[in-house]
Design goal:
With 237 residues, the chain is of the alpha/beta class. The chain has a single domain, classed as Thymidylate Synthase, Chain A, CATH 3.30.572. The chain is 40% helix and 23% strand. It is built from six helices and ten strands, in the order βαβββααβαβββαββα. The protein has helices at 11-25, 73-85, 99-116, 130-133, 168-186, 204-229; strands at residues 3-8, 27-30, 40-43, 46-51, 124-126, 141-149, 152-159, 162-163, 189-197, 200-203. Strands 1-4-9-7-6-5 form a six-stranded mixed β-sheet. β6 (141-149) and β7 (152-159) form a beta hairpin. The radius of gyration is 19 Å and the shape is globular. The protein starts with a strand and ends in an 8-residue tail after the last helix. Residues 233-237 have low confidence and may be disordered.
């Protein structure tokens, strides 16, 4: 098992780095069972992520023109976060929401930290229960560990399986909003975001899009370097 460690300043930067690295070093295989059985998947064996300034806006990556964005700010702020990550009522066709597990546990944790102090290693939110664990579609996000240290609140999250294209940008942006909410409730500053997964991947359908993103990024970086030499500086978009 190969552990890939990625450290980034912002959420868009960590996404771009992950896309590049999984294309370079990921394990390619055909899915035996579960979601997308029979399709190709390229996946990190194990990945550890550290984002130093996850609160830096924008949260979602700004991909080159012509490539459909994996997420948008409006979707995260107006739909994903309030309805699914913090909302506790599943919509029609949904088995569960993350929010139905997060909301009551987070409320308890915040009150506990206020009452008893921040030096506590029992501030963990479990995602799922016996019913969802044995369902055909168990939660991908399995846990949120909350740490208050150095005057800031930090999140450590674990995903058992994680779609790098369609899930990752919205997931981390939503979790950052949740962390900011927690910091505000506790009266502390917003801190870092850490994430771990043994299943961060790209599905076959998104591989070509990912290759286009990396290729256009490389091309734009090369042009930017040339423009700097010539006394001009241009963005890659």
């Amino acid at each position: 098992m190969r552990l890939t460690t990625i450290k980034a300043k912002t959420l868009p930067e960590v996404w771009f780095q992950c896309v590049r690295r999984v294309l370079q070093t990921g394990y390619s295989y055909i899915i035996d069972s579960g979601s997308f059985a029979g399709q190709e998947r390229v996946e990190f064996d194990m990945v550890s992520l550290q984002v130093e300034y996850p609160g830096s806006r924008p949260f979602v990556p700004d991909v080159p023109q012509g490539i459909p964005p994996p997420s948008t700010t409006d979707y995260v702020e107006l739909d994903y976060f309030p309805s699914y990550l913090f909302g506790s009522k599943p919509k029609q066709g949904e088995i569960y929401t993350y929010g139905q597990f997060i909301e009551p546990q987070l409320k308890h944790i915040i009150q506990k930290l206020k009452d008893k102090g921040f030096n506590d290693n029992q501030t963990y939110i479990r995602i799922g229960n016996d019913e969802t664990d044995y369902s055909s579609d168990p939660p991908c996000l399995r846990g949120i560990d909350i740490r208050v240290r150095y005057g800031k609140v930090h999140f450590v999250v674990y995903f058992r399986s994680w779609d790098l294209w369609a899930g990752f940008p919205s997931n981390l942006a939503g979790l950052q909003l949740l962390k900011e909410y927690t910091a505000n409730e506790l009266g502390v500053d917003d801190g870092e975001l850490f994430a771990f997964s043994k299943g961060l991947h790209l599905y076959g359908y998104s591989l070509e899009l990912a290759r286009q993103v990396v290729g256009l990024m490389d091309e734009a970086s090369s042009k930017t370097a040339e423009n700097k030499k010539g006394g001009q500086q241009k963005t890659w978009q």
